[in-house]
Design brief:
This is Porin. InterPro entries: Porin_dom_sf (IPR023614), TAT_signal (IPR006311). Keywords: Coiled coil, Signal. It is a single chain. This protein folds into two domains: 77 residues; 256 residues, Porin (Beta Barrel). It is of the alpha+beta class and 424 residues long. Helices cover 18% and strands 47% of the residues. The two termini are 57 Å apart. It contains three helices and 19 strands. It is elongated, with a radius of gyration of 37 Å. Helix 1 runs antiparallel to helix 2.
């Protein structure tokens, strides 16, 4: 082990002094000895001063390290106790979340091909504020405010209206929630009706780009009439509907507690309407499954809407199957209805998140005129980046419309889509 330079100098000086002491005690030798001792004393004092300064520096640095270590837990606790976003009420916790979902469609209507820059109506861009307060161990009260912020919504953009202008601002949910573990949940205000989503149960992992409401990805596009050599007045969303209950409304809704995976919901809606829904989810062996059914009184020229859906996932292989159907009673002509089926596969191909693939087919009938038929098929792929709440997706879909009216010959619409959804 090497010695510090100050120690080496001190040892050398000491050795020199001992050597001088061994010299004969002549006047010249004594004078030389005195000079060497004086020089040695000067070197020792200089080394002591240097060592003292270095010790002071070490003491200062050690003190600063102790201060940082002591302050770190306090700073962390303060950051946890004082979040950036806080509620105006001490006992209410506020959570802010949302998403942005943008995509590009390349669509051909049989006459022309165009590129559209869109917000994806499959799962629109939105902002959500949720406040929750724990009244007792069993009772929780809360509020939900959720708004939709869409610029160029895919359900509104068409061939002759490619830019719908400034972003639309729509209220999706404005509700109060009272949730009791034993007695169930009551929701008051605008929010999901009991029947909303009952035709849309889907475990494929690809709903961001394809699900039972096949029109959403390009609902505003109009079919080209080959007979008239111009765009018709019929859009994709006119031809296809999954008849999924009553969406979101101002209502009072009740949900029972879950029992063996089952949950029953019912609501009373403005304008004397109502709906109900039954949902189930569970695991059996290596399978995960979910299903739902809904019944609604729409309060218009029809008496009821009935719909349902089911999905099953084989967890080890990622293979899955989804089916959906719905019908609306019509006082004029045959009842419109829809049938939908999807087969999918979820795979762990990369380390940063699962990859999902699916193919689907939808058939809608009588949505405009009695005897109308709509056929749609699609392929979807979604790559998840799980740590960042991000999905990249791509899909291809075609829409075919067989019109009952003899003078309308609709061309097939094909749509290629790429996009991304980022949740926060």
């Amino acid at each position: 082990m090497s010695r510090p330079s100050g120690t080496r100098t001190l040892l050398a000086g000491t050795a020199c002094a001992l050597a001088l002491l061994a010299l004969p005690a002549t006047p010249r030798a004594q004078e030389a000895l005195a000079d060497q001792l004086a020089e040695l004393r000067r070197v020792i004092e200089a080394q002591q001063a240097t060592i003292s300064r270095q010790q002071d520096m070490l003491d200062t640095l050690s003190g600063r390290i102790n201060e940082v270590e002591a302050a770190a837990p306090v700073a962390a606790a303060r950051a946890e106790a004082d979040p950036v976003v806080t509620s105006g009420q001490e006992r209410i916790q506020l959570a802010i979340s949302g998403q942005v979902n943008r995509m590009i469609n390349v669509a051909n209507d049989g006459d022309d091909t165009k590129i559209y820059n869109l917000d994806n109506d499959n799962s629109s861009s939105r902002l959500r504020f949720v406040g929750t307060g724990q009244v007792t161990d069993e009772l929780e009260v809360g509020t939900v405010i959720e708004v939709e912020l869409e610029s160029n919504a895919s359900g509104k953009v068409s061939q002759d209206n490619e830019d719908t202008g400034s972003a639309s601002f729509n209220d999706r949910k404005v509700e109060l929630v009272f949730d009791h573990k034993r007695y169930g949940k009551v929701s008051l205000g605008q929010g999901d009706t009991a029947s909303n989503g009952t035709a849309e149960v889907d475990l494929s992992g690809t709903t961001v780009i394809g699900y039972s409401s096949v029109a959403d990805v390009a609902g505003g596009l109009r079919f080209f009439d080959d007979n008239a050599d111009e765009l018709s007045d019929v859009s994709v969303s006119d031809v296809f509907s999954n008849h999924d209950g009553l969406s979101r409304r101002d209502r009072i809704r009740y949900d029972t507690p879950s029992l063996a995976g089952f949950k029953l919901s019912a609501d009373l809606i403005s304008d004397q309407r109502w709906s109900s829904g039954l949902r189930w989810s569970g695991d059996f062996g290596s399978f995960k499954a979910a299903a739902a059914a809904g019944y609604s009184d729409p309060g218009d020229d029809s008496d009821y809407i009935v719909d349902g859906s089911a999905s099953v996932l084989h967890v080890p292989t990622g293979l899955n199957l989804t089916v959906s159907s719905g019908t609306k009673e019509s006082n004029e002509g045959d009842d419109p209805y829809n049938i939908y089926a999807k087969a999918g596969w979820i795979a762990d191909l990369v380390s940063f998140g699962p990859t999902a693939f699916s193919v689907d087919y939808a058939y809608s009938e009588n949505n405009i005129d009695e005897g109308d038929e709509g056929h749609s098929a699609g392929f979807q792929a979604v790559q998840n980046f799980s740590d960042y709440g991000t999905e990249l997706y791509a899909g291809f879909r075609w829409y075919d419309y067989d019109a009952a009216r003899a003078n309308l010959d609709a061309e097939t619409i094909t749509v290629f889509t790429v996009g991304s959804r980022v949740k926060f």
